[in-house]
# Entry
Amino acid sequence: MDVSAKTLATPDRILCSGKITWKGEKIQELTPVEPSPHQEDLILPGMIDLQVNGFGGIDLMSASEEEFKDLGKRLLKHGVMGFLPTLISAPIDFLCERLQTLGRAFENWPEEAARPLGFHVEGPFLNPQRRGTHPIGSLSSPDPGSLREILAAGQGRVRVLTLAPELPGALELVAIAREEGVQVSMGHSAASFEEAERGADAGIRLATHLGNAMPELRQRAPGIVGFCLSDPRITVTLIPDGIHLAPGFLRLALAAKGADGIILITDAMAGAGMGDGSFQLGPVSVQIQKGVCRNSEGALAGSALEMDKGLALFSRQTTASPLALAKVSAGNALRLLDPSYPPLLEPGSPADFCVWKKAGETFQLQKMRNKGRWMESKGN
# Structure
């Protein structure tokens, strides 16, 4: 079987008027073809979201195993084929329970759902001054014993840990996490440029929702934001919802990091995909009005973003190339999690991809192929 597109972009190359041929669930070859009016506009890899707190009315801080699976089914309809279920700050024993309960669902995961690639534990070792919507009573000082409890409960499934590198003892946790194969991300932090640099020297390679829950970038005190934009060791995650970051900041990040240094995330909470209303993010009540998620203190509390809309908005606001879109929506995230994974949309890799159509200055997700099935997007 095959499908062709005017533009076919993998994280490594572009074919202008290209065709994907597959047999069963594996790609056989990518070949150039003659242009045709029947070609699709754009084909990109299935997307990967490294920060999903909830979606479609489901909050992962309280979800059952079946609700967790249902969340995966809803994500797939927006082109997300892999994701990190994300847990916010909570008491250590509660985080351990969540990791164990949700972890059991990994073993009999449904075919027709976005696949969990592990867990992102966002906290509880965060700076109280930059906690955002994380409950103040759920934060913890960096403690090796607590981290080991969390990692043990995750049974090897914790893939990303967000912490504030400037906290006393934080760098010791970085060393422990890296020894266990966990990527450490700096976030919810008031770190200076020098403190962030020490975090990178210790092994941190990621920044969580850059520009949010951090001090503003200043010319005489560039701080954590300036460090992450300037240091090639750090890959930054960005929320492209038009709320968390101005278009100019997205363009600045792309200019500073290049497409290889950016991963798009949603930071979606339970209200994502549900419209305006009242929802939960763990114990925190969140109101969504005109797509903006805020807690009772007025702080941003996750996002209502769907990944396909985020990539389309990033495309329009930055004019990023299709090659860049393939990197920031899938390739870079997969490389971070598993450098040995086969390249996306290349011979021998799964025939999983998203088909986009031109929509004004950007693209709109039309349909997806996943696990041998075609599926129309939620937006269609």
Observations:
- The radius of gyration is 20 Å.
- The domain at 46-337 is CATH 3.20.20.140 (TIM Barrel).
